[in-house]
Amino acid sequence: xxxxxxxxxxxxxxxxxxxxxxxxxxxxxxxxxxxxxxxxxxxxxxxxxxxxxxxxxxxxxxxxxxxxxxxxxxxxxxxxxxxxxxxxxxxxxxxxxxxxxxxxxxxxxxxxxxxxxxxxxxxxxxxxxxxxxxxxxxxxxxxxxxxxxxxxxxxxxxxxxxxxxxxxxxxxxxxxxxxxxxxxxxxxxxxxxxxxxxxxxxxxxxxxxxxxxxxxxx
Length: 218
Ligand SMILES: Nc1ncnc2c1ncn2[C@@H]1O[C@H](COP(=O)(O)OP(=O)(O)OP(=O)(O)O)[C@@H](O)[C@H]1O
Ligand SMILES: [Mg+2]
Known about the structure:
Helix content is 34%, strand content 28%. By secondary structure, it is of the alpha/beta class. It has a single domain (2-216), classed as Rossmann fold (3-Layer(aba) Sandwich). The strands form 2 sheets. It has a 6-stranded mixed β-sheet with strand order 6-7-8-3-9-10, with helices on both faces. A 4-stranded antiparallel β-sheet has the order 2-1-4-5, with helices on one face. β7, α6 and β8 (191-195) form a beta-alpha-beta unit. Adenosine-5'-triphosphate (ATP) binds at residues 11, 13, 18, 20, 38, 40-46, 90.
């Protein structure tokens, strides 16, 4: 499903150049559940951003189903994300002017899926935030915002689920419950990559990769 070949991502800020992905090679088969671990600044979020079509490689190749993603136009990249990707961002990135309910509705509307009230409410139930459906993100605790962000990723049936520290703001019990939902999504056939510092979470994944300085070292 995913193939990175000699993938390089450089950030240039003022005079400084950072090599966030350094000639990375990676293959992921459909249906795999991969934990991505590594120290802060090693390139984990950069990797997810590239795989999710949020950003482009500086050089090298990213194939999804054999199709080159780095070569897509802005509009094609948008369509690629809409059709294939769900993302749980490290900083949640909820839409502040939308309610919890609307935050989950957005990806469904983008995919032209209508009459999805039951689906959204079922998802909020499973995340135990159904009572917060009409609230705005700023009125939620960090953990509730995180569950909303996970709901937005779980509510569609996109093939690739990219999760950046999805349980970082949760207590261990809630975290285990949320992880069960992600494993369930994977058992249902969705391919999952999950950045985590939690050893237990990484242990439960079928595959683990460790990144250091933009390279896969293990
Ligand atoms: N937009 C940007 N502009 C410039 N440098 C960036 C940008 N985003 C990331 N970097 C740099 O790229 C490197 C990799 O960053 P990245 O966010 O991928 O790390 P990470 O492994 O996700 O870290 P953390 O565990 O702290 O989230 C870091 O050195 C970071 O400073
Ligand atoms: Mg990160």
